[in-house]
């Protein structure tokens, strides 16, 4: 499955990022849509802006927690941002302590160069896209 075409406002948000960060986050966007398409529990994603950054919501099913793509002011890394009130980043840190750099309970940081760590990142994104299912006990892990 290929990602859908970008909404105009999301194109502008990606365009406002430094090119290497934008390119890396486009790869993450493709992965988000591929993971969502492969899991019937997730449903169609809503792609919009939250705080001026591309955001991915599971509005159709309510299965997951919002994923935002952007950058942190003090970093040259691409940032995947999560709701800080969830346990997602703590779970990622526990599962992949050396694979990624993290910021508090809200961000997973990716270097802009090198190979995208698709396998580990796919696990993290899948956990975010199904966060509420796991909490509601609707799916066994």
TrEMBL record:
Tree of life domain: Bacteria
Annotated SUPFAM superfamilies: YdhG-like (SSF159888)
Annotated protein name in UniProt: DUF1801 domain-containing protein
